[in-house]
UniProtKB/TrEMBL annotation:
Keywords for the protein's UniProt record, in alphabetical order: Membrane, Transmembrane, Transmembrane helix
Record Pfam families: NMT1_3
InterPro entries for this protein: TRAP_TAXI
Superkingdom of source: Bacteria
NCBIfam families: TRAP_TAXI (TIGR02122)
Transmembrane segments: 18-40, 342-366
UniProt-recorded name of the protein: TAXI family TRAP transporter solute-binding subunit
PANTHER family documented for this protein: SLL1037 PROTEIN (PTHR42941)
Length: 456
């Protein structure tokens, strides 16, 4: 029973010592991790919302491919359709729209004075999307030759209309007697082929079947911009391209001569609050989807940080300078994001946990030793009294006090790992006891007898 009592006492004492040593360390670690979690990036959302105009710039086809790519990485892409690039940008700029990204045409804004909206940045250009100006009548070499014509310029919120109005206003042919009609793409093409309008402005990829078909229609001409270089100087988001003779149809030689076209860029825009991991993932998708060659694009030419009328995001700048982040090159998206978020947790581990891993055992050892070392004062007191040549009665009292100290120390619960401190004390007790016993017997002390030294 006595043994069981001692074991129970030992366990209670050990638990108390552990709590005293570990609790402050645990509290410090918890504070360190709490502070660190404040700086840890939140996990990226699993759903993205994209604004796009399905009938503009081949955006609908690209959006489907983005949906497939992102789904393979565990991200759902929801599509929200608009009437055009202007509407898409306006929706992206609105704080409460819920839209995260958008396809748009370079040079277009969200309206409201044609200023670049705040909190909207470009992730890069995806392709050239030429401006096609088809017309009937005598050949003209620029939009100024369309003065007084019936011109389909696209609906109000479209990027086509925004670009058409920019060029028409620059040439002062946007006012009467010129008639500007807000027709949709398909309606405008039908109206031109039926002779109901004199010209149409269309922004569409060179690979579009509707464009290639319209270029082959008899009595319909494709305008070649002789002053294209001047336009690109005034409007940096435009670029000059030459459509070679016969590129649409070699057998029918469509077009029948080289045609100079102006082309804005298809843009991938995002709010500046978009999670960085998703920004890099979208640019990886752009590299896979837009990296192939086209009639106007070379292999690997896109995505690219071309002038677009919108500032390039910080993630896009790093992507085009150094490529895909290291973790995303070798790990799945979810794993790369997890590691990227949690690496900062190494800071409290290295700065706090490692030092405390050494400090806690030292504190526990100090707790055990402190309960034993305080009895060394009793031993030292007895040794000092021995030097004062005590009488027999005092020697008996000193021996009694020594035995009492030994009994008390033996009752101290000491973990096995630290039991050596207890045995050191008992050895020192024996040293003092032998000296007392010799004095009581009247025998001289041995020459090797020396004052007790307390272990460190």
């Amino acid at each position: 029973m006595k043994t069981d009592t001692l074991k129970a006492q030992l366990k209670r004492t050990l638990r108390r010592d552990l709590w005293i040593a570990v609790a402050p360390a645990a509290l410090l670690i918890a504070v360190a991790f709490a502070v660190t979690f404040y700086f840890v990036k939140p996990a990226p959302p699993k759903t993205l919302v994209m604004a796009l105009a399905p009938d503009e710039g081949g955006f609908n086809y690209m959006a489907k491919r983005y949906q497939k790519f992102l789904a393979q990485q565990g991200v759902t892409l929801e599509l929200r359709t608009t009437k055009g690039s202007v509407g898409s940008v306006a929706l992206l700029a609105a704080e409460d729209s819920g839209v995260d990204i958008a396809f748009a045409q370079s040079g277009t804004t969200g309206g409201k004075g044609q200023e670049v909206p705040e909190h909207v940045a470009s992730l890069g250009s995806l392709s050239y999307v030429p401006l096609w100006v088809f017309y009937r009548g005598e050949p003209v070499d620029d939009v100024r030759g369309l003065q007084g014509k019936r011109i389909a310029v696209g609906p109000e919120e479209s990027g086509t209309r925004a670009l058409a109005m920019t060029l028409l206003q620059a040439n002062k042919v946007d006012a009467a007697p010129t008639e500007l009609l807000p027709l949709e793409r398909d309606a405008a093409i039908d109206a031109l082929t039926q002779g109901k309008v004199d010209a149409v402005f269309l922004v569409s990829p060179a690979e579009s079947p509707r464009i290639q078909k319209l270029a082959a229609v008899k009595d319909v001409r494709l305008l070649s911009f002789t002053r294209a270089e001047a336009y690109t100087r005034r409007y940096p988001y435009l670029s000059r391209h030459v459509l070679p003779q016969g590129v649409f149809d070699f057998a029918k030689n469509v077009p029948d001569q080289d045609v100079v076209v102006l082309a804005p860029n298809a843009l991938l825009l995002a709010r500046d609050s978009l999670h960085p991991a998703l920004a890099y993932l979208l640019m990886r998708a752009a590299s896979e989807i837009s990296g192939t060659a086209g009639l106007l694009d070379k292999t690997g030419e896109f995505p690219a940080p071309l002038a677009a009328g919108f500032p390039l995001s910080s993630e896009a700048k790093r992507y085009y300078a150094t490529g895909v982040p290291l973790l995303q090159r070798y790990l799945p998206f979810w794993a790369a994001n997890l590691v990227d978020r949690l690496w900062v947790m190494l800071v409290p581990i290295i700065a706090v946990v490692v030092p405390l891993g050494r400090a806690v055992p030292a504190a526990l050892l100090w707790r055990v030793r402190s309960r034993i070392h305080r009895w060394y004062a009793r031993l030292k007191e007895i040794e000092i009294q021995l030097e004062e040549d005590p009488d027999q009665e005092m020697l008996q009292d000193m021996l009694k006090r020594l035995e009492e100290a030994e009994r008390e120390v033996n009752r101290i619960a000491v973990p096995i790992a630290y039991a050596e401190n207890l045995y050191f004390f008992r050895e020192h007790v024996d040293v003092v006891r032998r000296r007392l016993t010799r004095r009581l017997a009247g025998a001289p002390e041995h020459k090797d007898a020396h004052p007790m030294q307390v272990p460190a």
